[in-house]
Amino acid sequence: MNNYLIVAIIKKGFADIAMAYAKKAGANGGTCVSARGLGKDEAVKFLGITIDPEKDMLMIAADAEHKDAIVAALYENCGIKTKGSGIVLVLPVAEIRGGNF
User: Fold this and answer.
1) pLDDT band at 66 (very low <50, low <70, confident <90, very high)
2) Measured between alpha carbons, how far is 85 from 50 in angstroms, rounded to an integer?
3) Strand 87-93, strand 3-11: pairing
4) What is the C-alpha separation between 55 and 34, in angstroms, rounded?
5) In whole angstroms, what is the distance from residue 74 CA to residue 18 CA?
6) Confidence class of residue 84 from pLDDT cuts 50, 70 and 90?
7) How confident is the model at residue 76 (pLDDT cuts 50, 70, 90)?
8) Does the pLDDT at position 100 exceed 70?
9) Which residues contact 44 (CB under 8 A, 6 or more apart)?
């Protein structure tokens, strides 16, 4: 595969920081979507109401040449052991049409 979708799921408010690191590593841009986390330890009950932590999901299309550097930058700066407390996934993409990446 020559094309990849890099997905970073991070705490709400860290998408701009994550995107800045990804761009330094070779990403041309990305898309941020608001999301909610449903991890077993993250759902908090308050007065009988379950509150799910808000997340940002950053999606970046990348080629094989830049993939490893982008993933490393995201995880190093926004990974699970940082304030961004995120995870990074990489999925192969069979085809991309449109856009510059």
Assistant:
1) very high
2) 21
3) antiparallel
4) 6
5) 6
6) confident
7) very high
8) no
9) 50, 51, 53
Average pLDDT of 17-34? 96
Copy the structure tokens of residue 62. Answer: 């990348």
Under a CB-based contact definition with an 8 Å cutoff, are residues 33 and 56 in contact? yes
Give the residue carrying structure tokens 């993933």: 71
3-state secondary structure of 74: helix
Check: CB of residue 52 under 8 Å from CB of residue 36. yes
Q: Which tokens hold the place of 76?
A: 């190093």
Q: Which residues of 52-72 are buried (b: 16+ CB within 10 A; e: fewer)?
A: eeebbbbebbbbeebbeebbe
Task: For residue 35, report the phi and psi dihedrals to the nearest 5 degrees.
Answer: -145, 175
In degrees, rounded to 5, the angle at the alpha carbon of residue 74 between the alpha carbons of residues 7 and 80 is: 90
Task: Kindly report the average pLDDT of the chain as a whole number.
Answer: 87
